[in-house]
Amino acid sequence: MRIRTLLVAALSLALLVLVASPVAAATSDSQTLSAARVLSARKVTSAPQATIAEAPVPVPASEIPPAGRHLSADRVLEIAEALPKMRAVRKKYPGSYAGAYLKGPVRWQVSFFSKKGAKEVGQVIIADASGRVLEQWTGFQVAWTMARGYRGAFGEHVNALYVWLPLCLLFLLPFIDWRRPFSLLHLDLLVLLSFSVSLAFFNHAEIYASVPLTYPPLLYLLARMLALLRRRSRPTRSLRLLIPAPWLALGIVSLLGFRVALNVTDANVIDVGYAGVIGAQRVALNKPLYGGYPADNEHGDTYGPVNYEAYVPFEQIFGWSGTWDDLPAAHAAAVFFDLLAVALLFLIGRRMRGPTLGIALAYAWVSFPFTLFALESDSNDTLVAVLILAALYFAGSPPVRGAFAALAGLTKFAPLALAPLLATHGLREREEWVSISALRSRALALFLLGFLATAALVSIPALTHDSLHTIYDRTILYQSNRGSPFSVWGLYGNPTLRGLQLAVQLAAIALALALAVIPRRADLVGLAASCAAVIITVQLGIDHWFYLYIPWFFPLVMVALLGCLGEGCAVGMPVGEAPSRDLGATRAGTSRAGTSRAGTSRAGASISARWSPPSAALSSGSALPSATGPPQSSQSARASA
User: What phi and psi values does residue 316 have, to the nearest 5 degrees?
Assistant: First the structure.
């Protein structure tokens, strides 16, 4: 009891530290000037506005300082050209030349261009007052300003240690089991938090360290999700929470308040959220959704139509000034998506094991630092998680499941890989029950109807003005052709790695199709683990990976990891079995059967009753009607396994 009191005190102290954290916001406008600089800026598709400094103003060569300046253009060129890194660049690019620019009121920028100005190959930032070199960049860090480690570029103060470390503690603490210090769940949670190491290197512009460090946790989580797909035949330990569920519920409320307050006072809207607002206004005004975006977000039309349509209510309520300002509509949308994710996780957990699991899942979301990272960046990635979770929650309804599968896939296209898996969910289970294949055909047809009807409906605003060719060019083709240093494939650019990348991409397709047809675990744990495995495999093969993609699979991983802890999970109840109804059937079977059979039925009833919430009839998400249950003997045998 004393230990529990101390842990509750530690939880409260961590919450207090978070609430008391100082926050501040800093934004600045950004533009580009030279043709080479414009080319570079266009590649920085994920850089927030706040990270791009003032527009450079060209200054002709002269020994006389401009008005109000201490240094001349000739002097800053001399300083930049003397740097060893810039000398190496000049040697690598024969015929390259340098130009001097004013960079705001107190700095200079010297840009080195390849022959004929086709490409900016080096950049130096110099303090005007002292002549000190503040920054020097070569390679991909010239074009990708998001790779420079600017403080607060993504997530603002959530990256501060006084915020990040308490969140890590809050996330881990309730799930610690002192009786089982070497529990696999402990390792799972630490692996989820290990992305923080990669992010720390990213925030310090150490891209050659940050990028490789993302792959070990991704591979581990993929292996764990695949391992959970095996049909269980022996009991597993139940979920033990170190912090009582009522205290966790209080923590959820406190952390939600902290997250919303931090978003309102401190968050910055990156280009992703900005694009959502631009597209929402175009939808509302019945304008073409693709092409002709503002110069400061020229490729903001790279997403599916649902992404922009989801922002319409917020753009209509909060409006848009036409510039990359504070964008209150993007803030409101990000907060709303975050609240939806919390609600869906609670509902999924309650459906699976009751309110305690629901509280645990919701708490995991609000305490996990990378979900706050996405919220503080005001990105659209939480929307992807919400739509996938909705498909999971409505897994028992094929048309609704199909509708949400379409919505997720037409927000960002990667979730389309889940369509085969969601389409066949529940069709291979209960084979001994269902002798009429028409039931399965009907379920599949209903899924396809929901998927296609929804896809057609949400595509109307886009197809009204844009051709399929235009949409393809602006979305899938652009994303597939752009280079990015934020994956091992793009960072190293080795031809051998490119072959390996193709193999990984083919493996992702094969896995998505295999999980759709191979018998596997039948409950929501199996579905969540399957979806997480497919998403992680897809992310392993893409050119551009970023920390904002973690929320795509994180809630599914938590549903699988926490949902598999408990007697109901251990039994591996097939999809569509309703424990509450099975309990009544078992009792009826007991009255008609002999002593041996009655004992078995009572065992099955006991197991079903212990884990079944009132809505347990839908807990497994079956796509098939359950009017024709299995014979009593087979049902009891499975329940007592």
Answer: -70, -35
- 133 - beta bridge partners? 126
Per the model's pLDDT, the better-predicted residue between 62 and 550 turns out to be 550
Question: Which residues, at least 6 apart from 123, have a Cβ–Cβ distance to it below 8 Å?
Answer: 109, 110, 111, 112, 135, 136, 137, 138, 142
Whether 543 shows a pLDDT value over 80: the answer reads yes
SS3 140: helix
Query: What is the distance between the alpha carbons of residues 352 and 564, in angstroms, rounded to a whole number?
Result: 10
Q: Are the C-beta atoms of 341 and 386 separated by less than 8 Å? A: yes
**DSSP code per residue over 248-260:** HHHHHHHHHHHHH
Q: CA torsion, points 28, 34, 38, 44, in degrees to nearest 10?
A: -60
Residue with the larger pLDDT of the pair 355 and 29? 355
Provide the token pair at 87. 């000398």
* CA dihedral angle for residue 46, residue 48, residue 53, residue 58, rounded to 10 degrees: 40
Which class for 506: exposed (0-12), middle (13-18), buried (19 or more C-beta within 10 A)? exposed
Tokens of 493: 């650019």
15 beta partners: none
What per-residue confidence (pLDDT) applies to 231?
Answer: 66
Residues 6+ apart with CB under 8 A from 601: 586, 587, 589, 590, 593, 632, 636, 639
- Owner of token pair 């396809």: 448
Q: Which burial class, exposed, middle or buried, applies to 161 when counting CB atoms under 10 A from its CB (0-12, 13-18, 19+)?
A: exposed
- Taking the alpha carbons at both ends of the chain, their separation in whole angstroms is 36
Dist. CA 162–CA 499, nearest whole Å:
42
Only one residue has tokens 């994303």, namely 479
pLDDT the model gives residue 180: 87
Our CA dihedral for 415, 417, 419, 424, rounded to 10 degrees, sits at -140
Q: Distance between CA 404 and CA 422 in Å, rounded?
A: 10
- Residue recorded with tokens 């209509």: 316
Query: In the structure encoding, which two tokens stand for residue 234, read together?
Result: 């022996």
Residues 289-339: tens digit of each pLDDT: 998 899 889 899 999 999 999 999 999 999 999 999 999 999 999 999 999
Length of the chain equals 641
Tokens of 10: 């530690």
Query: Which residues, at least 6 apart from 620, have a Cβ–Cβ distance to it below 8 Å?
Result: 396, 522, 523, 524, 573, 574, 575, 576, 577
- Tell me the CA distances in angstroms from 76 to 33, 87, 135, 200, 381, one per residue in order: 19, 15, 13, 32, 42
- The CA distance from 252 to 367, in Å, is 8
Angle between the N-to-C axes of helices 355-367 and 369-376, in degrees from 0 to 180, rounded to the nearest 10:
60
573, 609 Cβ separation under 8 angstroms: no
β pairing state of 133-138 and 120-127 = antiparallel
For the sheet containing 120-127, what is the strand order?
A: 57-59, 97-103, 107-113, 120-127, 133-138
